Amino acid sequence: MQASPEFQELRSRFRSFVFPMTIAFLVWYFLYVLLSIYATGFMGTKVFGNITWGLIIGLGQFVTTFLITFLYIRFANRQIDPRAEAIRLELEGEAA
């Protein structure tokens, strides 16, 4: 089954979402870390009241995590789960 075209397509679709999303998030995360280390003046700049860019970007990390989770769930429900179910049914001999 692992060599089947259906499984290869499933794995390809999964990887086409997961790898770019992981790279994008890691770049975003390390940008925050690097700004925190090397751009302390910018990160400490007040935007309004006692709210700084560092706080806004830091909270943005949480927002991004929830957004990626939402996008992955939607992607999995539409793209991955139906294909995985079809493969499972084929393996169990229940394919139509």
Short description:
Keywords: Membrane, Transmembrane, Transmembrane helix. This is DUF485 domain-containing protein. With 96 residues, the chain is mainly alpha-helical.
Which key features would you list for this structure?
96 residues, mainly alpha, two-stranded antiparallel ribbon, 3 helices, 5% strand, elongated, DUF485, transmembrane, transmembrane helix
Characterization of the model:
With 96 residues, the chain is mostly helical. The chain contains three helices and two strands. α1 packs antiparallel against α3. The longest helix has 39 residues. The radius of gyration is 20 Å and the shape is elongated. The two termini are 17 Å apart. The mean pLDDT is 93.
Map the helices and strands:
Blueprint: H1 5-38, H2 40-43, E1 46-48, E2 51-52, H3 53-91
Antiparallel strand pairs: 1-2
Organism: Dietzia aurantiaca
InterPro entries: DUF485
Transmembrane segments: 17-39, 51-73
